[in-house]
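Thread: quick sanity check before group meeting

JM: Hey all, I'm pulling together slides for Thursday and realized we never actually wrote out the predicted structure for the chain we discussed last week. Dropping the sequence here so it's in one place. If anyone has concerns about the input, flag it before I start.
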Amino acid sequence: MNEADYGQTDLAMNRGMNAGDEQLLVKFYPWSAKNHQKSEEQGRPVFETVNYISIRVAGNRDSQIERPMREKDKQRFPVHYERYMARENQEIVEGTPLTEWAGISQAQIEELKYMNVMTVEQLVSMSDTNAQKMRNIYATKDKAKRYLESAKEGLASEALAEQKAINADLLERLSALESNEPAKRGRPKKVTEE
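JM (edit): ok, ran it. Output follows.
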């Protein structure tokens, strides 16, 4: 007589699809993910905080899932999600992370992180009262401000270059159409010499 394996026995005894989840190492965490659309619109990298989930099998370092969290994950791992939400800072950070900006050193990133400054935009908008607590921060703030302004100017120049390319294409098409036009009947147009 053949015996059913463990998975079939579980399903037969109505333990359900998620039986064994209590043995998984589950962690919800915030992750800074690049928003490609906003990055393209603003001409610089723009990141948003996205909730991620990590699922690992205890004792197996090769079996790990890391991906953006889904609604089903909240239902499947409600205790883990509640613990995550209890610890999580609900402030959503949007902008260019300091780690993605080449104009700053790692030491400055860590110092600013300690001061709860995570993005270039937050650095630029930091008050002078808070900024005076840090050494050499004013030069970094000015550099960040120029970076954001140049990104805006870059977008404007890109848009202008794109428009010029469209106009040149249209002029080329127009002249091609005019050269292929059959001769009109009637008197030719007057040509005046200057």
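AS: nice. The first helix runs from residue 6 to 12. DSSP finds eight helices and four strands in the chain.
JM: adding both to the slides.
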